[in-house]
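## Example record

The block below lists the input lines for one assembly entry, exactly as stored, with component labels intact.
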Amino acid sequence: MQKIKEKSIEAFLILCASITVFTTLGIIVILSIETFQFFREVSVFEFFTGTEWTPLFAIKKYGILPLVAGTLLTTLIAIAVALPLGLTIAVYLNEYADQRLKAVIKPLLEILAAIPTVVYGFFALTFVTPVLQKIIPSLSGFNALSAGLVMGVMIIPYVSSLSEDALSAVPKSLREAAYGMGSTRLQTAFKVMLPAASSGVIVSVILAISRAIGETMIVAVAAGQEPKFTFNPLQSIETITTYIVQVSMGDVPQNSLEFRSIFAAGITLFGLTFILNNISYWMKQKYQQKYE
Amino acid sequence: MYKLEARDIQLYYGQKHALKGISMAIKPNTVTAFIGPSGCGKSTFLRCFNRMNDLIDTCRIEGEILIDGRDIYKDRINVVDHRKKIGMVFQKPNPFPKSIFENVAYGLRINGITHKKFLEETVERSLRQAALWDEVKDDLKKSALALSGGQQQRLCIARTLAVEPSVILMDEPCSALDPISTAKVEELIHELKNKYTIVMVTHNMQQAARVSDRTAFFYLGELIEYDDTPTIFTNPAKEATQNYVTGRFG
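Predicted C-alpha cells for the full assembly:
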C-alpha cells in the first residue's frame, strides 16, 4: 500500500515537471514549423541582412535588422539606467543602510517590478517624453530614448534585489577582513564585496537584459512602432516584440506570409535570449567563487 | 611604556553586559594569550583594540583603550586609519577572492600605492615573513581560494604584515588548521614577536603555554587573572584559573 502511494506521488511529480518540458518543446516545434514555411518564400540571407522591414506595405521587404536594432537600442538604454542605479542601491542596502531601513526599502523597490508595464508605457509617453522634449527639442513624440529610460527604471529591482542577495550571501568573515585591513566602507563594498559576489551580480544583470529584450508594452506605447534601421535614440523605432503584437492583433490573415513573419521574428527573439542565457551560464561558471 | 592599555572596559550587546570592567596593560614585543571558556568575552575584548565591535549595531562600550598612550575611542580618532595600524587574523582563514599577489597587495592598494616594484617587493617580503613564499612563489597569480587552509591562514597573516602594523590581533588563528599548519603558525608567531606586539585568543591551552609570554584568563565577562604564562599554568593565584587550566571545567 505504502509502495503504491509512493509510486503515485512520484508519477504525479513527473507529470508536473513534464508539463513545463512539453510546453517548451511545443513552442519550439510550432515556431520551427512556421519559420520553415516562412523561409520557403523569403531567403534566410535577406532576412538576416536586410535593413528594411515592410511586411505590411505593398512592397514587402523582410529584413529583420531594423527590429533587432530597435530591440538592442532600447535594451542598451535600459541597462545603462538599471546597471549603475541597481548596483548603487544594492551596495547602499548591503553596506550602508541599517537593517530596519533595508527591511522597508527592499520590498518597496520590488513594487517597481509589479507595476503593469502598460502603465509604464503611458508614463513614458505622456510624462517622460514631454519633459525630455524640453531639453532635446529634436526628440520625436515617439522615441526609443524615453521608452528605454522607463524600461530601465522597471528593471532596476531585478538588478538591485538579486545583486543585494548575492552581496548578502558573501561570508561575513570577508567583510571583517576588509574592515580589519583598514578599508573604508566604499573600498569594502567595491574592492571586496562586489568582486566576491560577481557571479550573482552578473546573473542579475543578464536576467534584467533578458527582461528588457522581451519587454513589449512600454515600447509598443512609447517607441512608435516604426521599423527603422537606426541607433539614434531620438527617433521612433520598433522592436521584435512590438512587431509581433502589431501583427497578432491586427487584420493580417492567418497562414499568409505576413502572418508567418511573426514566427520568424519570434525565433530570432528566442535565439537572442537563448544566447544571453548561455553567456550568463558561462560567466557564472567562470567567475563563481567557492566558499566552504 | 605600555603598547596597549585597557581601562575599566564595560561592553554591552543590547541589554547583555558582555565585558565587566576589564583593565589590562600589554608591553610591546610580547605575545599575550587570552584563554577562557566559550562566551567569556575574550574575542569581544580582543575586538575592542581595533574597534571591530563598531560593526555591530547594538554594541555599546565604555572605558578607555589606549594604544601608544592614545585613546582610540575618542571621537577625533579616524577608525579606518587606526585599523591600518592594528592587524587582525581571524579564526577561519578569510582570503579575498583575488589572486595570492593581490591579497597581499590589498592593504597597499587601498592606501593608493601603485608603484609596481614596491608592491612586488612588499608582497615577497610579507610572504617570506609568513613562511609561505617558497610554497607559492611560482603561482602568485593563482586564486588564493585554491590554497589549503593552513596556507590560506599564513596568506592572511602575510596580508596583515604587508601594511606593517605595530600590533597584530589573532582570534583563534589555528582553530581551523591541522597540527602541522598549527605548528608553522606558532613558529611564525614566535618570530613575529621581535617586530610586533601580538595578542591572541586561543582555546588551546598548550598553545597558550607554548607561544605566549603573558596569559589572561577570562570568565563570564570578567578578567579573572592576568600574569606571566608560566605562573598562570603552574601557580595561579585564583582557584578558577587553576580549575580551568587543569581541565576541571570549561
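Chain A has a mean pLDDT of 90. Chain A has two domains: 2-41, 65-287.
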